[in-house]
Amino acid sequence: MDERGFIDKYTDVEEESITSLKDDDVHSENSNLSKKESLIENSSQTKFVDNDELRLNMIDGMQSFFMESSNGSFSPRNLMIDLEPTVVDVIKTGPYRDLYLPNTLISSSEDAANNFARGFYTNGKLQLEEVLETLMNITENCERLQGFLFFHSIGGGTGSGFHSALLEEIHDEFPKISKLEIAIFPSPTLSTAVVEPYNAVLAVHHSIDYTNCTFLADNEAMYDICQRMLRADRPTYSTLNRLLAQAVSSITASLRFKGSLNADFVDFQTNLVPYPRIHFPVMSYAPIINSDMITHECLSVQTITSNCFDYSHRLVRCESEYGRYISCCLLYRGDVTPKDINGAIALIKQKKNVQFVQWSPTGFKIGMNEQPPAVDPKGKMASTTRACCMLCNTTAIKEAWSNLNVKYHGMLKKRAFIHWYLKEGMDMEEFYSAQDDLLLLEQDYNCLD
User: Would you call 133 helix, strand, or coil by DSSP?
Assistant: First the structure.
C-alpha cells in the first residue's frame, strides 16, 4: 500500500507444477527485488542502510511500497492470501519471513481446489471478512491512497474465485481508486488444471468491469524465455518469478525513484486503455541475458528497444503478425538519454512488422528513470546498466482470448465438470453469460483493427 501511490495487494497463491507460477513467490520475489533496489538490509530488523544521505534521498519513494515502524524497520505494504495454508507457510518460514508483518500473511484451512465457485461462493466468502478488515487497517495508514496492485492467476481457484469476490468488495468500498493487475494467463498448451478454462473465463467475466488495467503474462512464454535466453535447462519457480519480478520492478520504478520523465500508474491507464474493456496490455522486457553471456551482447538503447518489440521477449504468447498496436508504453531505466530513445523509436517506426492502428498515429508513451535495474545474485540474469520494459495494448491478444474461448466452449458443450461448480452454488446461466462476455471482448478487439 502506498502513501503517495499504491497498495501493493496480493490475491492468489496457487501451488502448481513446474510449468506454472506460484504467485506467492512472484509477489515475494517482487518485494525482495524492491528491497534490494531500495538498499534495505536483509536482517531480522529489516532496517534501512545506515546512511543518512541515502535515507533522506530515498525515503519518500521507499514509503510507496514499504511501511516504516517506530523503531526504524520496514515491511512491505501488502497482503498475501491463499485459501489453504501450505503455500503461505513457505513465506512464513522462508529466508524473508522477518520482512513481512504476520497479519499480512493470511490463509484458510481449506483450499479452493481449482474451483472458481469455491473461491467465490463458499470457502472464499468465509475468509473475506478477515481480509477486508486487514485491508482497511492498512489503507487507513496511507496518507494519499492512489490504488491497488493485484498479483493473481486467473486459472486457479483462489486467483479466479476469491480474487473476483474480493475485487467486488474493494470496488464497492473504493469505487474511484485505481485497480491494476499482474495476471497469470492460461498457457496455450501447458496447463496444471483441467478446469482452467472455466476458472479463467468466469474470472474475466466477474472482474472486467472492476479493473482499470490488467498486465498479462503466462508461464509457458516465460518458461520458454528462461530456456532460450537464460540458458536454464529446467527453469524452476524461482527462475520464472525473477523474470516477472524484473518487469514488475520497471513498472513500479517511477513510484520508488525520482526520474526526469517518470510514468506513474495513472499515466499507464490514460495512455494504454482506449476503451474501458480493452485494458489488457502485454508485457515485454529486455535485456534478458545469461550472466555468462553478458560480455558478448550489445546492450545499446536501440537493441533493447528492438528486442522488446520481438514477440520472443513477450511474457505472454502473442505474435504481432496477427494484430496491430493500439498504444505502447516504453519504460527505460539506467543509462539512457532522450536522444538515444528518439533514435530507437524512429527506427522502430520504419519496421514493417510494427503496425499501429490508423486512428492512433502517435502510439508511444515514454518513461525514463536513472536508477539501473537490480538483479538477484542467486539468479541467472545478468546485471546491466540499462533496461527497457514495454507495455503494449495490441489487437494480437485477441488470439489468446479466442484460444481460451474455444477450450471453454468445448467443455461447456459437453457439460464436463460442471457439477463441481453447481454444488458450490453456481447456476448454468452464469456459465453462458461468461461465454457471451468473452465473445463480446473478442468482437471489441476485432472492431479496433
Answer: helix
Query: Between 52-62 and 237-256, two packed helices, what is the crossing angle to 10 degrees?
Result: 100
- Amino acid identity, position 64: S
2/144 Cα distance (integer angstroms): 7
Three-state DSSP class for residue 327 = strand
Per-residue confidence band for 320, with pLDDT thresholds at 50, 70 and 90: low
Q: How far apart are CA 66 and CA 74, in angstroms?
A: 6
pTM: 0.87
Domains delineated in the chain: 404-448 (1.10.287.600)
C-alpha triplet 338, 339, 340: angle, nearest 5°: 90
Across-strand partners of 41?
A: none
Are 115 and 423 in contact by the 8 Å Cβ rule? The answer is no
Residues near 214 by beta carbon (within 8 Å), at least 6 away in sequence: 180, 181, 183, 279, 280, 281
Q: Which residue has the cell 495490441?
A: 394
Count of CA atoms in the C-beta half-sphere (13 A) of 287: 24
Helices (H), 257-325: 265-272, 301-308
Rounded CA-CA distance 55/72 in Å is: 11
Question: Which residue is it, cell 452464469?
Answer: 430
317: Cβ contacts below 8 Å, ≥ 6 apart: 187, 188, 218, 220, 221, 400
User: What nine digits make up the cell of 243?
Assistant: 523474470
Identify the helix (H) or strand (E) that includes residue 434: helix 428-446
Mean local confidence (pLDDT), 384-388: 94
Least confident of 22-36, 303-317, 402-416: 22-36
Average pLDDT over residues 139-168: 92
Q: What angle do CA 164, 245, 221 make, to 5 degrees?
A: 80
Beta bridge partners of 381: 290
Residue 376 CA to residue 316 CA, distance in Å, equals: 23
Q: Dump pLDDT digits (tens) for 205-264.
A: 999 999 999 999 999 999 999 999 999 888 988 899 999 999 999 998 888 887 777 777
